[in-house]
Design a protein that fits this description.
8 helices, globular, alpha/beta, about 260 residues, about 45% helix
Length: about 260
């Protein structure tokens, strides 16, 4: 029996900026929000921004998703909390960039911890109650790197590829419960991660910031970076009742990059 409340509680990781903040704004139209992020001041600013835009029902939780014990503690608490989390958006991610031989064990472990293990732990904790109530939405923010791979991104691509495989496995397991599980796979998006990539390219190649940004824009056939709001609206749709028959999918939002 379906038991979605009028304003379900949505947990969004990496919610203080970029794609996560845009997702919070989009979901806040019909969900209460629990924003998770590493920096208290950034979360407070995100909450202020959302409330000034008319979003109500916002709470925050400071958490480093690379801290396995802290993630497990949050998962255990939320598994018993009222109201239950009925929408989970695993958005937080880190994007280390290095050649294969320059990717040390620490960088590999960190990428897997934040990008794959934390989403697994949260999903494992929260999905059973979604299934019990007969309604839930889980969206994992993966990447086009999960679909094609890029140079110098072995740790990042492996973690996002694993997240996509996790998405499909859990979707198959929960298919008859009213819980959908999907992944969105953005191309280069106009966020701090893209800004970091621009700086990295500039430092290593001597190109100007404008030239470095243009090199990222050329990955997409539409010739520009993806906007965070574009990703957010896709996530919001996947979290709606209208998307009830969509599960186990990897939806690219990349301007056609992965089909050309």
């Amino acid at each position: 029996m379906r038991a979605r409340v009028e304003r379900p509680l949505a947990l969004i990781t990496g919610a203080s900026r970029g794609i996560g903040l845009a997702i919070a704004a989009a979901l806040g139209r019909r969900c209460d929000l629990l924003l998770v992020g590493r920096v208290a001041s950034s979360l407070a600013e995100a909450e202020k921004t959302l409330r000034s835009g008319g979003t109500t029902g916002v709470s925050t939780q400071v958490l480093d998703l690379g801290d396995a014990a802290a993630v497990q503690q949050l998962a255990d608490r939320l598994a018993r909390a009222e109201p239950p989390v009925q929408v989970l958006v695993n958005n937080a991610g880190i994007a280390p960039s290095a050649p294969l031989t320059g990717t040390d064990d620490a960088a590999w472990a960190s990428a897997l911890a934040v990008n794959l293990t934390a989403p697994f732990v949260l999903t494992r904790a929260l999905a059973p109650r979604m299934a019990k109530t007969g309604w839930g939405r889980i969206v994992n923010v993966a990447s086009t790197s999960a679909l094609k791979g890029y140079r110098y991104t072995a740790a990042y691509s492996a973690s996002k590829g694993g997240l996509l495989a996790l998405t499909r496995a859990v979707a198959a397991e929960l298919a008859r419960t009213g819980v959908t599980v999907n992944a969105v796979c953005p191309g280069f998006t106009d966020t701090d991660i893209a800004a970091d990539a621009v700086r990295n390219i500039s430092e290593k190649t001597g190109r100007s910031a404008q030239e470095a940004r243009a090199s990222l824009e050329r990955f997409s056939p539409i010739g520009r970076l993806i906007e965070p709001t574009e990703v957010a609206e896709l996530v919001a749709y996947l979290c709606s009742d209208a998307a009830e028959a969509i599960t186990g999918q990897a939806l690219a939002i990349d301007g056609g990059e992965t089909v050309t």
